[in-house]
Amino acid sequence: MENNKKINHWCILCGAGYHSCDACSRERSFLPWRTLTDTAEHYKIFMVLKDYNSGRLDKASAREMLEGLDLTGKEHYRDGAKRVLADIGMDDESASDTRKTSRGVREQ
Ligand SMILES: [Zn+2]
Q: What is the DSSP secondary structure assignment for residue 100, as one 8-state letter?
């Protein structure tokens, strides 16, 4: 039993539950991303989306930064995050894989 490791945070990007000790977070070695996301990578992605949303990054810069990050599992991100990704053009629809076209679907 690990009752002291209970889930008390949910990733702001993907919604995954994780444990982060709030008491430890107040120590000087505190890693700020632990209070927002489950992984450091998700924190970086979230910061790009946040900066884009607030106008500090333009679409091209945001896209460039996201291309350097691991977007594995982005289909499980929270709706708000997915919407921003789609706006930047990093969702599956606008990505290189365009097998599914919206029009002209024919039976084989
Ligand atoms: Zn996450």
A: S
